[in-house]
Amino acid sequence: MQHLEVKTNGSVATLVIDRPEKHGALSPRLMADIHQGLDEMHQEPRIRSVILSSTGPTFCSGVDLSVLHEIRSLPEQEQLQQWFEYWRRLAELCEALLRFPKPLIATVDGPAMGAGFAISLSCDMIVASQRATFSAGAVRHGLVGGITAALLSFRAGTSLSAKMSLTGIPLSAEEADRAGLLCQPPVASEDIETIAARWANESSQGSPQAIQATKRLINESIGETMLTQIAAAAADSATACTTETAGEGIDAFMNKTTPTW
């Protein structure tokens, strides 16, 4: 795997996003690597729970805008297919995390932005450091972050989802905790791995069959509408990429300028 490192310690595995030079941006290769890591840990009977973490100062900066910029350079008739393919892969990654049969703990020690916020919300629990932030700022790039909005609505309600998705204003770790998004108050960065491992062990003490059934109840039965919303949101986000404002936002990001709407 090119951008993912897998570590194991007893019955706990850690999938480490290893793309610090791009702040963990979700390229197609990285998304495929996370899928592969999940598949391997699913098949490994010794592993009872999994932690998702990241190297570098950013947990995950979200969609890879350089990939979206590359798509914009394709002939027009090819672009729409590629937009849909990219957002479909992101939706499938979030669904794979939600359907993963073992407890998943996201360890966020830095910004989790847009789709990076979405993948943390797709895990069962989030352990955050005091320097973590969470944002859903797609609109500031002329994009539609529908997958993140759907997951945030599922986890915390539509009021917070609307506030974050429409303004792009980030939540601090303390604010995320007050909103009920974290499994405990923020911790020091140097303690985050130990505390995440503690939650991973605590969440795997029950029967594996009961844990799997409980996850299915929460994420697939109670969250049935949410799974449908993720698929629809991926299509909406892809369509939004065809607009002039999306193009301006992507170009502004690549050129390090501010878009004018």
From TrEMBL:
Pfam families: ECH_1 (PF00378). PROSITE patterns: ENOYL_COA_HYDRATASE. It comes from the Bacteria. SUPFAM superfamilies: ClpP/crotonase. CDD domains: crotonase-like. Belongs to the enoyl-CoA hydratase/isomerase family. This is Enoyl-CoA hydratase/isomerase family protein. It comes from Aporhodopirellula aestuarii. The lineage of its organism: Bacteria, Pseudomonadati, Planctomycetota, Planctomycetia, Pirellulales.
